[in-house]
Amino acid sequence: MTQSRKLVAVIVTFNRLEKLKLTLEKTLENSFFRVVIVNNASTDGTDLWLNSVEDDRLEIIHSEKNLGGAGGFNLGFSYAASNIPEADWLVCFDDDAYPERGATDTFAALDIPDDVGSLAASVYLPDGKRISEMNRPSMNPFWHFREFFGTAGKGRAGFHVDDQAYASKAPLEVDSSSFVGCFIRLENIRSGKIGLPRSELFIYADDIIYVLGSRLAGFRHWFVPTIRFRHDCETLINQRDVYYPLWKVFYTYRNRLELFRIASGVFFPLVLLIKIPGFFLTCRHYPKEERSIFLRLTRNAVWDGLRRNFEKKHSEVVSLATAED
């Protein structure tokens, strides 16, 4: 059993200074060993404000360019593993999320077997009552027959943990979760047993892909409902796949194809037949004047995703969302 509990928080931020202020305040109320903040070349004064904060636990990385969430976590994980050798675990989250008071104490009291390589906290919306749907942990339906058939009958609810699991006090073994309140055993990174988040993904699906990679490396992933985080995000409350700015559509669908490839294995061709038409049908949720842009982004996303081409620069993606037909 692992007894050490030197925990590092890794936070990625980009141009959300007011949210970051609350996040850092709540984070520093907990007993983290270090707090690493990756500033993704923010232009809203984040750099000046961060440099003015006085706390011995705080370590700031100012990136020269916006690396996206995936690149930011790649940089933050690498820094924690290489530059903070005393630390045993990290927990990551965005600049609009934060741990509730006592989260680190709850983590420290856990009895974690050595084969558990990562943990997922329970994540709620800012009121602390409603579950944040986009952060609900899940099983991989392609690895479990019950969840596979549950997906066919219930859709998303068939393979995500239910509300009863959130009310429990016992950890539950799951396959994936988001990077909000995701705890990673640092020794697994240092030893090369697992890698770093894939920076080329820029945003979206990097978290689930990363946790699935840890599972494929042989480590268990626990959902721990007694460790609570809050996330100021309304995505998926109405279960509609609508993204703004429109350039986010590209990353959503390109990276989902990579996620589906990893999660489904030999079933991937079947998944393509179901999912790709669904991508294009999402067009109906956008205003008519935006649909041509949506379709252009989706076409490019599918083409790059099928070829596993992750070389497109962010500036090129933004251009796809602004170019005239």
From TrEMBL:
- Domain Glycosyltransferase 2-like, chain residue ranges per copy: 10-102
Give TM regions.
Answer: 259-281
Annotated Pfam families: Glycos_transf_2
Domain of life per record: Bacteria
Cited Gene3D superfamilies? Spore Coat Polysaccharide Biosynthesis Protein SpsA, Chain A
| Keyword vocabulary terms for this entry | Glycosyltransferase, Membrane, Transferase, Transmembrane, Transmembrane helix
Molecular function terms from GO: glycosyltransferase activity
Instruction: Spell out the family assignment given in the record's similarity comment.
Output: Belongs to the glycosyltransferase 2 family.
Name this protein carries in UniProt: Glycosyltransferase
* Annotated organism of origin: Halioglobus maricola
